[in-house]
Each structure stands twice: as C-alpha cells, then as structure tokens.
Specification:
Helix content: over 70%
Distance between the termini: 32 Å
Largest sheet: none
Strand content: under 5%
Order of helices and strands: HHHHHHHHH
Structural class: mainly alpha
Number of domains: 1
Length: 216
C-alpha cells in the first residue's frame, strides 16, 4: 500500500470511528446516562475516542477500533430500549456520514479532483475513503456479536422469556465472536477460499453504496 492510500484509509477510519463513538456518548448523555460525558467522551476530538491498540492496528494491518463508550443502563428510564438506542446510533451516524459525503462525491467530483498535491487528487480520494469506511463500519458493527452494536440492538427483538439467556450471551458472547472470526479466517478463508464476514460486508457495502448514489 502506497503512502497516499494509507493516508486516505487512516484519516477515513479515524474520522468515522470518532463520529461513531461521539454519537454513542451524546445519545447516552441525552437519555440520562452521564458516564461518558463525565469521562470527556461527548467530544469530536479523536484523541478522546482512539484506543491505543486499535489505533496501532490501523497503521499495521488497516483494521482498528475505537475506545468503547462506557454506558450504565441503570441511569436510563427504560434501560432495555435506551441501551439499544445508544448502541444503534453509532452505526446510524456512520450511515448518515456516508450519505452526506456522497453528495459532493457525486455532484462536485470535479472540484474535489482539483484539490490535488503533485497530481494526486487528495480531496476526491479522501472523501471517497470516508464514504467507504463509513459504510464498512456500519456493516461490521451491525453484526449480532458482542461487543458489536448489533448485539445490543437485537435485544429489542428478543422475546421476554429469552431475555435472561440473551443477557448471558451479551456478557460472554465475545468468545463466540472470536471463534467466528477464527473459523472465518482459517477454515472458510484458507480451506474453502471464502469468507462469510467478507461476503456479508461486501454485500451490504454494495447495496448501501448503490442505494445512496441512486437516491441522492
């Protein structure tokens, strides 16, 4: 990967991760939980949201994550609903960013292309990277595995008689997610030559990006 490609990816990921985590913190505070606000997380300062290991991995393997936003459901008026809403708003914020940044990408690509250094269309490629990273982060976080946001949103759909079992799943489900990633990478990927995670993210990415550009 050349310097500019790495630059676009890193800046795009840092931007979308920051917005993602800020959105969690802002909504949690708005719903009555001040935990994230008291830790300075209701901020668009990337340094407030970047996890040291997750940030390092962005540079090393182009995959990373932000520092999880602390949430205390006991502050919420309706803990189950409000925890799910707090989780959902992160991926939705990335979807919104993808839509907003797609507008200049579609209608002002010429102007963005003029923002260049040494012939490299930095403006155009950076906006495109933010759009792509936003959609990928949305798709990834909607997977129903803890600690991803999708797992907390799904609890709204779980029948009452299964709530206790699902709560246990949320507490211990990281192990299942790790097993899924290992199986996807080393069994499906290397032996069968396919990736369930890659297929899912790729399919969602293509559908959302196509829908955005058709709709704007």
């Amino acid at each position: 990967m050349d310097f500019f490609s790495l630059l676009y990816l890193v800046v795009g990921l840092v931007a979308v991760i920051t917005i993602h985590e800020f959105s969690h913190a802002w909504v949690a505070n708005a719903l009555g939980d001040p935990t994230a606000r008291l830790q300075g997380r209701v901020s668009l300062n990337p340094l407030k949201h970047l996890d040291p290991l997750g940030t390092l991995l962005i540079f090393l393997i182009q995959i990373g994550w932000g520092k999880p936003v602390p949430v205390n459901p006991s502050y919420f008026k309706k803990p189950k609903r409000d925890e799910a809403l707090t989780a959902l708003v992160g991926p939705l914020s990335n979807l919104l960013i993808a839509i907003l940044f797609s507008i200049p990408l579609k209608y002002a690509s010429g102007f963005l292309g003029d923002l260049a250094i040494g012939g490299e269309p930095i403006g155009l490629n950076l906006v495109a990277a933010i759009v792509d990273m936003s959609i990928i982060l949305f798709a990834f976080n909607m997977l129903p595995f803890p600690p991803l946001d999708g797992s907390k949103f799904v609890q709204l759909l779980v029948p009452r008689r299964f709530e206790f079992a699902y709560r246990n799943y949320l507490k211990n489900g990281q192990m299942y997610f790790l097993l899924f990633l290992l199986a996807d990478r080393f069994f499906l990927g290397r032996i069968l030559g396919i990736s369930a995670l890659g297929w899912f993210i790729g399919t969602v990415f293509a559908l959302i990006k196509g829908a955005i550009f058709l709709g704007i």
